[in-house]
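W.,

You were right to be curious about this one. When I first looked at the sequence I had no strong expectations either way, so I just let the prediction run and decided to look at it fresh. Below is the sequence, 122 residues in total, followed by the output.
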Amino acid sequence: QVQLVESGGGLVQAGGSLGLSCAASGRTFTFDTMGWFRQGPGKEREFVAAISRTDGDTYGDSVKGRFTISRDSSKSMVYLQMNSLKPEDTAVYYCAASLGGATIDPRFYAYWGQGTQVTVSS
């Protein structure tokens, strides 16, 4: 059984920073890629960032240069540091795990967390 649990969401002012964490349990050694996605009100799920053992890290265009993904495999943790936050970053952020290489397509992620709310006020 695989579980992903996100934490660290909250309310922050525009221009501020917030860090998200995702704790993975279960057969984590099988995951090549860990990713973050988000879904804002009335929007489709959007790729944010992914980090792969084989392909390195990848970012969505809207967060490139502001967000940083990192991974501590020894602790089965993945992190998302979000800087220079904008109101349009407001969304539920989901952690996801894939057995394959880095991809922006959510269909290739087999495991998902429950999500954590991030709200950026203007």
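Here's what jumped out at me. The mean pLDDT is 94. And, maybe more interesting for your project: The two ends are 40 Å apart (CA to CA).

Coffee later to discuss?

I.
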